[in-house]
Write a structure and sequence with these properties.
With about 270 residues, the chain is α/β, with parallel strands linked by helices. The protein has two domains: about 130 residues, Formyl transferase, N-terminal domain (Rossmann fold, 3-Layer(aba) Sandwich), CATH 3.40.50; about 120 residues, no CATH class. Helix 1 runs parallel beside helix 2, helix 6 packs across helix 9 and helix 9 crosses helix 10. It is globular and about 60 Å long.
Length: about 270
Amino acid sequence: MLKIGWFSSGRGPGSRDLLRAVMEERGRGSLDVEISFVFCNWDNTEEPNPRKEQRRLFFDMVEGYGIPLITLSWKGFRPDLWDSDQRAWRDEYGTELRRLTSAQDMDLGILAGYMLWMDDETCRRYDMLNLHPALPDGPKGTWQEVIWKLIEERADRQGAMMHICTPEWDRGEPLTYCSFPIRGGGYDILWAGMEEKLRTRGLDEIAAEEGTEEPLFRRIREDGSRRELPLIVETIREFAEGKARIKGKRLYRGDLAVDGPRDLSAQVDAALRG
């Protein structure tokens, strides 16, 4: 059985959906995993805390599943060091994170909506996977930055990938990915609308004025985000079924190191249809 350490900031429905999806697959007997613990970088006593209710729902879900919940408030941890040296703060926080989680069995860590940068030493010691909302050869940065870059480049496809966490953030080896077209069908009229706007305004101006509600941007985000959950589940399945493992921060299948990520688009699309 694959033993997973689950790292999440518990910010909203997406965090709950990710955990629920894995636990439901496990409950159906189709995913041979155990979530050994959930680690959250909030303890929900912080103020201000605009997501307090969302986080309470997440904590209730974790405890309802009987999963050990480990919290370490990033706001309450060494505020003196945070104010003076955030790199040193991150290293100290990572040391405490490892102390708190070291007693738990973990074969693989999953960063599922974990909004705090992981320190270098934890990335070296733990094998962890992170979701990045872009294709392996796509843009880096936040999901917002990725989508605006795709629009700027007049891209044809978007996707998401799971990659190994390394000290170089978003630069670890990609393990799996899925992709989908952002041309054709209902996309063409949205691209035409964007091109019309670009005749009189710059992209930065459009982004500032319309933000995530811009129709083309919103459609790309919606089609991407609905694939993230099945991609995480299907990636975990690869490891649970012994089809993949990590050794020395490289992906192996059997005894062979693999060059290049595995395309799980067919599995992800099937999960969406099902």
